[in-house]
Amino acid sequence: MTLESALSFFVVVVIFGLTPGPGVFAILARALMDGARPCLALAFGMAISDILYLVAACLGLAVIATHWGELFTVIRIVGAAYLIYLGWKMWQAPTDVEAMERKAKSSGVALSFLQGFLISASNPKVILFYIAFLPTFMDLGALSSTDIVLASVLTLIGLMLGLMLIAVFASQARRYFRSHTAIRRLNRGAGSIMVGAGAFLATRN
């Protein structure tokens, strides 16, 4: 991978990270409820899952997406159900600021990472993105381990940058919601976004 192709690949990954989808909706909902910091582990989990798809695409495992469609359908439905469950939990979230802050602090990093990983892993079409764009940036016929490592690092940095930009902007908007009524609307709005993301994922073909 040349310097020019590496920079181009990085820009495309950042744009991909900003593109609306289940992962972006999850980051948006979490940042609106808990602020930007709790989104770090969530975004990291998504990035790691994406990197696994990237490596799979690099190693020629795209055949899984075409021949194991039933498995990916199960993964997609489970992921959609999980997003809807998270949305329901957000609807029932407390409406006082102190309780929200305690909830944010009590959310384990490992759990947030797992949530992010599952959200991204439940969208197998991510691999199609890498399958479509990788030939533009590297010679897959002469692919080296260095190329795979470089692409993985660029993907990690690019996705984290894109997702955390969304988290920061959403967190800034959150500061304007301090009353019980506003927080209730915020919780239900974020929950509706998450349920919508689950429904969107469930209806994807």
From TrEMBL:
The keyword Membrane applies. InterPro entries: LeuE-type. It comes from the Bacteria. The keyword Cell membrane applies. Keywords: Cell membrane, Membrane, Transmembrane, Transmembrane helix. The chain crosses the membrane at residues 6-28, 40-65, 71-88, 109-133, 148-170. PANTHER family: ARGININE EXPORTER PROTEIN ARGO, ARGININE EXPORTER PROTEIN ARGO-RELATED. This is LysE family translocator. It comes from Marinobacterium alkalitolerans.
